[in-house]
Amino acid sequence: MGTLIMKFGGKSVGTTDALAQVVSIILNEHEHWKRLLLVVSALEGVTDALIEATHLAKLSNRRGFRRIIATQRARHLALVDQLPLNPTTRNALQADLDRLLFDMLDILQAVGENPSDELMADVTDRVTSVGERLAARIVAALLRQNNLRGVALDATDIIVTDNVYGNAQPNMPLTRERITNNVLPMLDRDIVPVITGFIGATKTGQPTTLGRGGSDYTASILGICAETDAVWIWTDVDGLMSADPREVHEAQTIAHLSYEEAAELAYFGARILHPRTIAPLQEQQIPLWIKNVFKPQQAGTHIDHASANPNTLKAVTSIQGLGLRAARSGPLSEISRLVDDTLFAVTGSHADVMISSQSSTQSFVCFVIPTSAGPDAIHSAQQALEEALNEHPDMQTWQVHPVSIITVIGAMLDSLAQHTASILQVLEGTRILALAQGPSHCSLSVVVNPQDAQDALLHIHQLILKAGERKK
Ligand code: ASP
Ligand code: MG
């Protein structure tokens, strides 16, 4: 067979057991595919820790950031100690990791000595990019130990991006050129590149990151540039699910989704997949699979262009968003601009204003913050918005409050009124703040108060299960 890209997430590279699984999966697929490319994330929790270290450096908290780096160093070296490596490989690997960690400490030290109020997203990216570099070296060493020609590659040399630190966009023509010149020839020599997920670099070589959870996106960027036949994302759950299993116990793995459905699901909060992953794959019709590292024989979730059965509802998600309300009506352009500017300053991504509505005396605007902006983004965004509104005397009538956006995903939701009717029926009694039909044809969102979200989620999920049973 042709070319396959496999991406391994933070949980699948974090422990010796998980790494043993990863190696056996790679060895197995190496038998089946002519060319193999791998993408790895940082070990679970490392990116969070490095962001925190940068934050402490900015506050000149030298002890704080040193402690974090010491902990990460100990963790990585202990992991390497436990891996089945011969002494020479082990020593070389540990020296390699140590050098990366010391270089990073230098950067943090410099920040600690010259603290500033600036966001310093560029420094955060230089520091966080180290997490993926460490992981790629560990996986590559394991492959060499198993007689594969594993080579760790830093995506800073491969993926060229703009300079929106923290949420960079790739420059596809330049990236494609580098992959054609530098990576594809390696594949022809039976080398298995282990490429760092999440990171890239500007034209001038400054490291950037693609947004939290960005390794999935790395796999799809590489997928279209290397013209792969498939992309497999390995994670620690069985695939994309009908709801977040932490919130809905009966959640089930979804066997198949169309590209549109998967994109909507990721956008509206399924944390398994970076929201920007799907678009490039869809453009080139490259199929995507999401599989569980611990159960490799299971099929997982398959995503491709095949149109979905219009009679099924696939999934329901709930994400936090922010709603703005004002006791007046009139043009919304000013408030939209303020929201967008503030959000961009805080999260590096543009506001996705998803719903706005007005009555004769009231206005309501509601937007989501992509999961790629990181887990704290919603709080920082709310704070920043409140401050921004206060600074504009004519905007002080706007009140910001958290909302929950419940989104149902299913094929042709926009043209099958019976689905909309049954969704609204199970929400009987819930206060609906706004309602929106996604332009993608396969999503319907209702905005509710956060305290109503859990019930709404459960009721809609029951509807999904019932619809599934009817089909059987
Ligand atoms: N390590 C990065 C993060 O935690 C990227 C990823 O995991 O995909 O966001
Ligand atoms: Mg992820």
Secondary-structure-based class equals alpha/beta
- Outline the biggest β-sheet: 8 strands, mixed
Task: Return Rg in Å.
Answer: 23 Å
What fold name goes in the CATH topology slot of the largest domain? Carbamate kinase
CATH superfamily of the largest domain: Acetylglutamate kinase-like
Question: What does the model show?
Answer:
The protein has about 475 residues and is an alpha/beta fold. The chain has 2 domains: about 5-235, Acetylglutamate kinase-like (Carbamate kinase), CATH 3.40.1160; about 315-470, 2-Layer Sandwich (VC0802-like), CATH 3.30.2130.10. The chain contains 13 helices and 16 strands. The chain has an 8-stranded mixed sheet with strand order 3-4-2-1-7-9-10-8, with helices on both faces. It has a 6-stranded antiparallel sheet with strand order 12-13-11-14-16-15. The longest helix is centred in the N-terminal third of the chain and has 27 residues, at about 85-115. The chain binds aspartic acid (ASP) and magnesium ion. Aspartic acid binds near residues 197, 214 and 215.
Keywords:
single chain, 472 residues, alpha/beta, Carbamate kinase, VC0802-like, eight-stranded mixed beta sheet, six-stranded antiparallel beta sheet, 44% helix, 21% strand, binds aspartic acid, binds magnesium ion
